[in-house]
Amino acid sequence: METIIIILAGVLVTVATYLLLSKGVLRVILGTAILSHAAHLLLMSMGGLKTGGVPVIGEGDGTYTDALPQALILTSIVISFAVTAFLLVLAYRTHQENKMDLSKIARGLKNE
Amino acid sequence: MNNILVFPMVIPLLTGIILIFLRPFIRLQRWISLGAMIVVSGLSIYMLEMIQTNGIIRLDFGNWKPPFGILFVGDSFSILLVLTASIVTGICLIYAFLSIGQEREKMFFYPFVLFMVAGVNGSFLTGDLFNLYVCFEVMLLASYVLITLGGAKPQFRESIKYVVINVVSSWLFLVAIAYLYGAVGTLNMAHLSARVAEAGQPPLVTVISILFLLVFGLKAGLLLYFWLPGSYSAPPTAVAALFGALLTKVGIYAIFRMFTLLFYHEPSITHTLIGIMAGITLVGGSLGAVAYKDIRQIVSYNVVIAVGFILVGLAVATPSAVEGSIYYLVHDMIVKALLFLIAGTMIALTGTAKIDRMSGLIRNYPLLGWLFFIVMLALAGIPPLSGFIGKILVGQGAVEGGNYVLLALAMISSIFVLYSLLRIFKNCFWGETIISEEEQVPLKKTLLIPCVILTALSIGLGLGAENFAMYVKDAATTLLNPSIYVEAVLGE
């Protein structure tokens, strides 16, 4: 099961890298979102998948899944959510202010 | 009593939250934020003394014993950096009072500076890897806001690049943490160190360590510094000074921690790699520093050179080299802030950043000119000033370690630093005065106060190196003997 998840994470990273290297800023932001999905999947599978019950005391039969990676992922989801929200607004404001093609920023062209 | 350890992070955080409610009262915001930094500096000095007598102090949150809970660990190295960071931030705040402008002050400028400092101090103090990640994000999110705050065109352009680069490096950080947790099964740094030592650092862990090197290399501008010159020249002066003084230094701190505490078993691979990266950084930074005619670019590339220089000390890893790196790290935080402030003042006075468009500034602004001269000598490492002792110790370490290529690169880079700044001094301060008496922009005398304080600190650090040596020695001893740290955390 871990192997499949790792392959899935690998595919996500490939897609994200491709998107990050593209011209449009929106594509880049989508890339960062997919990248964080891949990291979260990786964190989960690194803790070992499905070795016991739900990590709630009283729910399982004595063995529980590792609860630590879940806490880490929860933290990291919130952080990446905040960063993505900021990045989206930043891209919107840049588009609004500069009246220019977002792709120019991605390519690093000076417009002054 | 150990609760004192949490204050460098909690005081800025709480003050920042309070300042959000005091939005219309700018004067009050200024005084409170400055007061918070002074309190943190005072507490850090107290803690530094405490560590000299009692050894490493640690604080377990919620009374969970070390491998299971999050904890803060204060050794001389981290507290020294907390102290320097707080002092430098306080001084940059004074500069910000006079220069940043009402619009930015009304848009939560001070809260975000304090949040950034909270993140920086948290990163220095934490003893947990994932907590380090969170503190990094606290620092970075605040820095994203500070770099965009105000919304000038170049700020937008550079901030998108800056944010995306940091999102990618944070992602790498997360992946590295996942791998390390999968390989070793813990996140507490001391516990990690013990487990890695038990396993004798197998190749898998070495690969993970290189991943960490990439992550912190991106944050610190070690080899992967391509994002740095652009981002550091976009924001207003006070913010750029804070960035130049604090942000890359956190990355350097993390590299030092990682490679002295955790991954020190395969120096032939990891430390050689650090050496190569530091060497290339020195060359690249030196080329950048002499290539541009834009003051901000020159100053930013000087940050890159300093990163390379400090990491040379780690790559060599003899006691005197590490000591030299610590001296240089503290010196560089102070002097880079000063350099950015002076460069920003020059740009504000002349209205241009190109060095061939200004000339003869020393006749109109003599004090500014001589301050720049002193900072130039300090950065190049001229004896009575603060850069000297760091450079000489790193050099001595490199000779002891027989690492002559790095020694040559490090010393030649000093010449490049001197040349690049001397070019600014000669072009901008000497020569015919372009600005006549009538159209001379009056330099607010108060604007020079922070510069003078920083210069005094730099001179004091150079002349008072003896008084300072005790702390640096202790920091270097702890870094080179990870068992001290591990025992302080996991012992009893």
Automatic annotation (TrEMBL), chain A:
Query: Do you know which PANTHER family this protein is assigned to?
Result: ANTIPORTER SUBUNIT MNHC2-RELATED (PTHR34583)
Q: Which superkingdom does the taxonomy of this entry point to? A: Bacteria
The regions listed as transmembrane in this protein's record are 6-21, 28-47, 67-92
Primary site of residence:
membrane
Q: Could you tell me the keywords of this UniProt record?
A: Cell membrane, Membrane, Transmembrane, Transmembrane helix
Species whose genome carries this gene: Lederbergia citrisecunda
Give the membrane topology: Multi-pass membrane protein
What protein family does this chain belong to? Belongs to the CPA3 antiporters (TC 2.A.63) subunit C family.
> Where is this chain's protein located in or outside the cell?
Cell membrane
Annotated protein name in UniProt = Na(+)/H(+) antiporter subunit C
Q: Which InterPro entries match?
A: CPA3_antiporter_subunitC, NUOK/Mnh_C1-like
Cellular component, GO annotation: plasma membrane
From TrEMBL, chain B:
Residues annotated as domain NADH:quinone oxidoreductase/Mrp antiporter transmembrane: 127-416
Q: How does it sit in the membrane?
A: Multi-pass membrane protein
Tree of life domain: Bacteria
Q: Which GO terms describe its cellular component?
A: plasma membrane
Q: Which GO terms describe its biological process?
A: ATP synthesis coupled electron transport
- One of the record's GO molecular function terms: NADH dehydrogenase (ubiquinone) activity
InterPro entries noted in UniProt: CPA3_Na-H_Antiporter_D (IPR050586), NADH_UbQ_OxRdtase (IPR003918), ND/Mrp_TM (IPR001750)
Family to which this protein belongs: Belongs to the CPA3 antiporters (TC 2.A.63) subunit D family.
Q: What is this protein called?
A: Na+/H+ antiporter subunit D
Species of provenance: Lederbergia citrisecunda
